[in-house]
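In the lab's daily routine, each protein ends up as an entry in a very long ledger. A line of letters takes care of the sequence, but it says nothing directly about the fold. The fold becomes a row of whole numbers, each drawn from a learned catalogue of backbone shapes. The protein below has been through that process, and both of its lines are reproduced in full:
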Amino acid sequence: MPEISLFYGIRITMNWKDHVPPHFHAEYNGNHVLIDIIHGRVLEGGLPKRQLRLVLAWTEIHRDELMQNWELARALEPLNKIAPLV
């Protein structure tokens, strides 16, 4: 699964040809979550509260870039790196 961002120990990845709805994966310290890009909500799994807030804030900031990567992934194209939360 290609890594598209990494910040505060949170690894953000996206699969090629993944199932809908558009989403990405976030992993932190053995915890894993799927985040709906459009609605900015958890689809599956969980993270500690602080890390989840960071991921959801990052999602709001980078929604357009995440959707561009989603379209690239669906077309089996290389994904773009997205700036981390700083």
